[in-house]
């Protein structure tokens, strides 16, 4: 049974772990990340992404039909993505954040740039 008290070692260890986590989080904006989007059963999964400038968004088509990821105002486009193919876009400041599939306009996704 514990008394509800923490040892000095536990407190120091917890503080060190918290500091390490905060340091890693604060460096996040300097390290680009690849965000995976699966195209499956005529949907983008996930439909909403939270990204940073410099990150990469990678779409992989798992459907038999070809698809695209195309910005609503056509500012960027992956081109046709056939079954089992991959297409990527690098996130830039001011890029359009709503997109759809040019072949299947009911398929929609959004990007939130942090």
TrEMBL record:
Pfam families: Copper-bind (PF00127). Keywords: Copper, Metal-binding. Residues 37-112 form the Blue (type 1) copper domain. The keyword Protein biosynthesis does not apply. One of its GO terms (molecular function) is copper ion binding. It comes from the Bacteria. NCBIfam families: TAT_signal_seq. This is Twin-arginine translocation signal domain-containing protein. It comes from Halocynthiibacter styelae.
């Amino acid at each position: 049974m514990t008394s509800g008290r923490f040892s000095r070692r536990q407190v120091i260890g917890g503080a060190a772990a918290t500091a390490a986590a905060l340091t890693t989080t604060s460096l996040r904006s300097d390290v680009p990340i690849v965000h995976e989007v699966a195209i499956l059963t005529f949907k983008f999964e996930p439909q909403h992404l939270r990204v940073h400038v410099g990150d990469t968004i990678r779409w992989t088509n798992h459907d038999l039909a070809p698809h695209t990821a195309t910005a609503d105002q056509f500012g960027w486009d992956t081109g046709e993505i056939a079954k089992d193919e991959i297409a990527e876009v690098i996130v830039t400041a001011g890029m359009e954040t709503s997109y759809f599939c040019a072949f299947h306009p009911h398929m929609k996704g959004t990007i939130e740039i942090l």
